[in-house]
């Protein structure tokens, strides 16, 4: 039956030339391995808003979300296998492990299911990956820092969750940036786990042993904690790169109003989940030219535009950007050009 | 009578619910997908069952499975000889733990909890980032497709029959269970309790190794945290399968069925029920509690 549908869809495409297959009968599932922090909550919210509308507009038949109870790999592998059995046409996935889910992902591909991974991407070649250029983000942090601190000086680096590909990429970008700007020197490095409380504790611990620091390069979710640690120690406030969290931007606004404090903010938008959804929809629509690795820009705010964005972010939330179908098609186009 | 039938009954119940929610899951293809990740869980449950038969508990089985997984995806593929030696050595470590726990009269919960961090640390040392690849022969074994009966069901039957025969039908099996049932009587009869404890822990190590290898054969590559959830699943599986924490009362067939039930109840059932995402985590826990509570209620009524 399914084969017949595929064949008839192919036939229709051949006859009508450019006309694409209809996706109104397609079902897309979202396999998510963790929902326990503000970023993931924002990710699920964005996904819910965009997919609800897509279902109402009859773009797709269903877009269901499945979250695993723990962060375990086998649980998510089992979940993917169940989604195969449920007869979904595509699976959007934020994966618990880049490699260990490949077995299940391959089974999905073999059952003619489109798999699109994002944030926690998978390495199985048959899947699509929506990747944010974290390395460039790290490099850009130092570039921006050079504008605010033209004389250079000592930097403190706050790292993210150890052992993740994201932490590796941002760190590599920061090192590259520092190499291009020899006026900066990283004099200390702490682990903040993308969490304000953890970052505050870590920074407070290393502060007494540090020489004067002009700036902090970090990974988002740690800027406000670092600011609190400096305030508590009574040390002069350095230029802290922010990560789009509501508390961070609020603090920045307060400081700007006080004395014109300047910095820059960037992070991956949780709404990238909606881009992954549209990519899946586009593949189901019959597009064959979509590259399996899609690079998308991160979301950045500057001195001029962050205040406009602040009221839109939920208390304790993260700035996000929800993709429309047109945005997604444009993003795919930008990747084909490269 | 009901007590012995209970594990099978709960499995049937879960299967009926799945068949009702998603009829297409009840097929050769469906069983293959739903149950293949239940094989490593069943093996880990059998491993846990051996220590429980000796009135002990192993809180390190999950991270041990993860450690075995990391060894399997790296050394066992690149340098099979070293890989085999390391795995045999880890079974030896389990045997030594049994001896240590018996000789120093230590609580096994404390010793194995400590060991769980050791295994986790070793796993991260071997494989700091997720990756590696399972040996080809293992991949081929785990994706074996026999005619008519799905491989996971065949494997579950094989595990249940072999362990049932070994532990329930041989005379040394009786001694092993007796070490949990009435240790004083065994000692007076001249049996070495040190030896029974060593054998029980070594068997746990052996089945832990099998579990880790089976898991990597399915997932194709490893992650240091891959087995962490197995500790609780394996204990729940033993209890669901009609075992008791004390008294050497365990059932290998029940344990395998218990593991299958848990694997099905936790994931496929939940996915097919279309529970809103905010409630899925809680629903998973609720199903576990309901299934285990039903088992306790019925076996209490029998007494």
Q: Which architecture of the largest domain in chain A does the CATH hierarchy give at level 2?
A: 3-Layer(aba) Sandwich
Radius of gyration of chain A, in Å, reads 22 Å
Proportion of residues in helical segments of chain A: 40-55%
| Biggest interface found | A-B, 38 and 43 residues
Based on the coordinates given, report the CATH architecture of chain B: Orthogonal Bundle
Beta-strand content of chain A: 15-25%
| End-to-end distance of chain B | 12 Å
* The CATH C-level class name of the largest domain in chain A: Alpha Beta
CATH superfamily of the largest domain in chain A: Response regulator
- Uncertain ranges of chain B: none
Q: Kindly state the number of beta strands of chain B.
A: 0
What does this protein structure show overall?
- The complex is a heterodimer of chains A (338) and B (303).
- Chain A is an alpha/beta fold and 338 residues long.
- Chain A has 2 domains: 2-126 and 269-297 and 320-337, Response regulator (Rossmann fold, 3-Layer(aba) Sandwich); 134-267, Response regulator (Rossmann fold), CATH 3.40.50.
- Chain A has helices at residues 2-16, 38-56, 73-86, 102-110, 134-148, 165-180, 196-206, 223-233, 246-259, 272-284, 306-309, 325-337, and strands at 27-32, 62-67, 90-94, 114-118, 128-132, 153-159, 184-191, 215-217, 239-240, 265-267, 293-296, 299-301.
- Chain A has a 6-stranded parallel sheet with strand order 2-1-3-4-5-11, with helices on both faces.
- In chain A, strand 8 (215-217), helix 8 and strand 9 form a beta-alpha-beta unit.
- The longest helix of chain A is centred in the first third of the chain and has 19 residues, at 38-56.
- Chain A starts with a helix and ends with a helix.
- Chain B has one domain: ABC transporter involved in vitamin B12 uptake, BtuC (Orthogonal Bundle).
- The radius of gyration of chain B is 19 Å and the shape is globular.
- The relative contact order of chain B is 0.21.
- Chain A binds chain B through residues 32, 35, 44, 64-75, 77-79, 81-87, 96-104, 106-107, 163, 165, and chain B through 22, 24-25, 29-30, 33-34, 36-37, 40-41, 124, 128-132, 215, 218-223, 225-230, 263, 266-268, 271-272, 274, 277-278, 280-281, 284-285.
């Amino acid at each position: 039956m399914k084969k017949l549908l595929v064949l008839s869809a192919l036939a229709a495409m051949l006859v009508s030339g450019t006309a694409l297959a209809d996706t109104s009968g397609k079902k897309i599932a979202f396999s998510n391995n963790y929902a326990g922090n503000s970023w993931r909550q924002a990710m699920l919210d964005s996904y819910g808003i965009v997919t609800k509308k897509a279902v109402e507009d009859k773009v797709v038949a269903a877009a269901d979300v499945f979250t695993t109870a723990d962060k375990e790999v086998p649980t998510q592998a089992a979940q993917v296998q169940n989604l195969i059995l449920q007869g979904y046409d595509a699976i959007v996935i934020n994966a618990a492990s880049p490699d260990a889910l490949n077995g299940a992902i391959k089974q999905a591909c073999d059952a003619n299911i489109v798999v699109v991974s994002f944030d926690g991407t998978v390495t199985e070649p048959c899947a699509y990956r929506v990747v944010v250029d974290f390395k460039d983000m790290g490099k850009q942090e130092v570039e921006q820092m050079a504008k605010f601190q033209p004389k250079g000086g000592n930097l403190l680096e706050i790292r993210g969750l150890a052992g993740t590909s994201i932490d590796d990429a941002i760190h590599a970008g920061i090192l590259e940036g520092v190499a291009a700007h020899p006026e900066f020197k990283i004099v200390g490095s702490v682990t903040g786990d993308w969490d304000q409380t953890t970052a505050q504790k870590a920074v407070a611990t290393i502060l007494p042993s540090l020489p004067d620091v002009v700036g902090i390069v970090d990974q988002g979710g740690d800027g406000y904690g670092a600011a609190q640690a400096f305030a508590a120690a009574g040390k002069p406030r350095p230029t802290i790169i922010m990560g789009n969290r509501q508390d961070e931007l609020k603090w920045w606004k307060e400081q700007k109003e006080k004395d014109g404090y300047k910095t820059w903010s960037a992070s991956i938008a949780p709404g990238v989940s909606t881009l992954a959804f549209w990519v899946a929809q586009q593949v189901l629509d019959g597009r064959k030219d979509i590259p399996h690795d899609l690079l998308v820009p991160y979301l950045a705010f500057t001195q001029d535009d962050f205040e406009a964005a602040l009221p839109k972010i939920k208390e304790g939330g993260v700035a996000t950007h929800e993709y429309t179908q047109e945005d997604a098609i444009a993003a795919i186009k930008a990747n084909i050009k490269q | 009578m009901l007590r012995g039938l209970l594990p099978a009954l709960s499995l049937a119940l879960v299967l009926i619910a799945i068949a009702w929610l998603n009829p297409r899951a009840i097929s050769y293809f469906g069983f293959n997908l739903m149950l293949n990740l239940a094989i490593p869980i069943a093996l880990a449950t059998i491993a846990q069952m051996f220590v429980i038969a000796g009135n002990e508990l192993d809180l390190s089985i999950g991270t041990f499975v993860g450690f075995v997984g990391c060894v399997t995806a790296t050394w066992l593929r690149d340098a099979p000889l070293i890989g085999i030696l390391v795995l045999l050595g880890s079974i030896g470590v389990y045997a030594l733990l049994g001896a240590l726990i018996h000789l120093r009269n230590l609580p096994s919960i404390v010793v194995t909890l400590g060991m769980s961090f050791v295994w986790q640390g070793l796993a991260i040392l071997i494989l700091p980032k997720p990756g590696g690849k399972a040996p080809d022969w293992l991949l081929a074994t785990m994706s074996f497709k026999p005619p008519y009966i799905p491989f996971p069901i065949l494997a579950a039957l094989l595990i249940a029959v072999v362990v049932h025969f070994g532990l329930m039908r041989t005379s040394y099996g009786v001694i092993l269970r007796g070490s949990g049932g009435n240790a004083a009587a065994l000692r007076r009869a001249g049996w070495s309790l040190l030896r029974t404890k060593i054998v029980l822990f070594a068997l746990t190590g052996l089945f832990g190794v099998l579990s880790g290898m089976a898991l990597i054969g399915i997932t194709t590559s490893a992650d240091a945290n891959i087995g962490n959830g197995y500790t609780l699943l394996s204990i729940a599986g033993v209890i669901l399968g009609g075992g008791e924490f004390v008294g050497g009362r365990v059932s290998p067939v029940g344990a395998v069925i218990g593991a299958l039930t848990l694997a099905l109840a936790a994931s496929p059932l939940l996915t097919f029920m279309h529970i809103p995402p905010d409630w899925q985590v809680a629903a998973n826990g609720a199903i576990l509690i309901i299934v285990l509570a039903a088992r306790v209620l019925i076996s209490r009524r029998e007494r």
